[in-house]
């Protein structure tokens, strides 16, 4: 019996070494503001960290003569898995595109305040995915753990109308599918 256990030991050790790394812990929706919780019946299927820039443009404020403001134009970011491997990109639309070519767009359902100086948390209802791959079956996307990305602190005036500024940001994007 001892010989059998000793002979099996290298097999067990090599099997453990081949076990894939554990996925990042999934989101506890009950700990989030109610507005950005994913409805029951959906499960998290992928978590990514988006790092990139949000472009803002200085424009005249609609209906307010002589008043100007920084207006959101578009985001662009790379998406990495929890281990740091690049798995896709995020850009205006909004569109999330995986390296396998599948992509999903969506419409904002709700936002909730984040830490000061950071863009809000967000819940997006996904449209049916285009292409087969990682984005297939995605039903909701959450933007969580946001850092930065708010409109520039520099003045937006009549002299700077039309100027654009890029602001760095980071956020976790959590993708959900129906169960």
Question: Overview of this structure, please?
Answer:
There is one protein chain. By secondary structure, the protein is mainly beta. The protein has one domain (43-151, 159-178). The chain has one helix and eight strands; from the N terminus they run H-E-E-E-E-E-E-E-E. The protein has one helix spanning 2-17, and strands spanning 42-60, 68-80, 86-91, 95-98, 103-112, 121-126, 138-148, 164-178. The protein has an eight-stranded antiparallel beta barrel. The N and C termini lie far apart (45 Å).
Quick structural gist:
The chain has 179 residues and is mainly beta. The chain is built from one helix and eight strands; from the N terminus they run αββββββββ.
